[in-house]
From TrEMBL:
Descriptive protein name: ATP-binding protein
Protein's organism: Chishuiella changwenlii
Phylogenetic placement of the source organism: Bacteria, Pseudomonadati, Bacteroidota, Flavobacteriia, Flavobacteriales
Domain of life: Bacteria
Gene3D superfamilies given in the database record: P-loop containing nucleotide triphosphate hydrolases
Molecular function in Gene Ontology: ATP binding; ATP hydrolysis activity
Length: 231
């Protein structure tokens, strides 16, 4: 469960996000939408204790993220390529993350073998450093590495961006599989309203740092969002 209380962040006196109260329950799959600069990445960064809030607090499974590291045992994220280690190959990076999450090499080999199709023959066994992969392929590595160790809370910032159409479809299926048994809490931000609606059971929209929509996904949601963003 994620609890957000009176969270705000200011830069040089300018408030870029403010959310009074928001609760995300275990098992929910959240799509976070909003125009450029709406505050999506800022919200994720606050949840992951990557930046200090100006006011308020965020709790992941009842743990205040800026007071203890315990939430890291159940939480994972891929925000951007700064989460990667550029001088490692994909395999070395997967083993490194596996090591952090108590997984041995054999279990990582078995884990990454499941994603052969997602990697589309461009990631494994190539002996390329992560810095030399295309942006889309770096993203594929980051997303799959984020899933190592079966974390309960998964935060993905714009996972569809830079991915080719085949991979976008595979990623949608992957997210749907992850959410199916309602054991995981998944937050995905995206500018693609179609994708977001398809993989999320609840949509949260930000506008200029304020929460302006919080709706259960239904057959009308895509149209509602398109109308909202058409203004
Ligand atoms: N370090 C910083 N210093 C000053 N302003 C910042 C800083 N980081 C973010 N901001 C501002 O906070 C606001 C929200 O940015 P954020 O990256 O969270 O938006 P976003 O919704 O993720 O946008 P996008 O869709 O373009 O990725 C923007 O106005 C941005 O310029």
């Amino acid at each position: 469960m994620i609890q957000i209380n009176n969270i705000s962040k200011e830069y040089n006196g300018v408030r870029v996000i403010h959310i009074d109260n928001l609760i995300i329950n275990k098992g929910e799959s959240i799509g976070l939408v909003g125009n450029n600069g709406a505050g999506k990445t800022t919200l994720f960064s606050l949840m992951l204790d990557l930046i200090e809030p100006t006011t308020g607090e965020i709790k992941l499974n009842d743990i205040k993220v800026n007071e203890s590291e315990e939430w890291k045992k159940v939480t994972t994220a891929f925000i951007d390529e700064s989460f990667l280690i550029n001088y490692l190959t994909p395999e070395e990076y997967f083993y490194f993350i596996g090591d952090l999450r108590g997984q041995n090499k054999a279990s990582i080999d078995a884990f990454i073998a499941q994603y052969e199709e997602f990697f589309n023959g461009e990631i494994l066994g190539k002996k390329k450093y992560l810095r030399d992969l295309s942006k889309g392929n770096q993203k594929k590595v980051g997303i799959i590495a984020a899933l190592i160790g079966d974390p309960e809370i998964i935060i993905l910032d714009e996972p569809f961006a830079n991915l080719d159409p085949s991979t976008q479809i595979r990623l949608k299926n992957l997210i749907k599989d992850l959410t199916q048994n309602k054991e995981k809490t998944i937050l995905v931000s995206s500018h693609d309203l179609n994708h977001t609606v398809e993989v999320s059971d609840r949509i949260i929209a930000l506008n200029k740092g304020e929460l302006v929509k919080d709706i259960k996904t239904s057959t009308q949601t895509l149209e509602e969002l398109e109308q909202f963003f058409a203004i």
